[in-house]
Amino acid sequence: MAIGLVLYAETTWGRQIGSRALKLWLTHLFATVDLPHIGFTIWSGNMGMIRIGQKLGMSEEAQIRKVRYWQNRY
């Protein structure tokens, strides 16, 4: 299983909303579904989401290079 998180409105950034929401969702999933692992795939340029994953104790398992093309760059 893989999960993601999107907070489009910049006014919601930096207010711990993503951290709280993701922590609640992970707690629910692990309590209700027999899962040994949940993936959290994020774009390497999204430092906010990287920090949320680190804060919640997630570990980096892989990097997939040249997947996202943005502003004429991979």
What structural class should be given to the helix and strand makeup? mainly alpha
Give the SSE order as H and E letters. Answer: EHEH
Beta-strand content estimate: 5-15%
Strand arrangement across the biggest beta sheet: 1-2
GO molecular function: acyltransferase activity, transferring groups other than amino-acyl groups
InterPro entries: Acyl_CoA_acyltransferase, GNAT_dom
Domain N-acetyltransferase: 3-58
Protein name: N-acetyltransferase domain-containing protein
Structure notes:
The protein has one domain. Helix content is 34%, strand content 5%. This is N-acetyltransferase domain-containing protein. It comes from Pseudolactococcus hodotermopsidis. InterPro entries: Acyl_CoA_acyltransferase (IPR016181), GNAT_dom (IPR000182). One of its GO terms (molecular function) is acyltransferase activity, transferring groups other than amino-acyl groups.
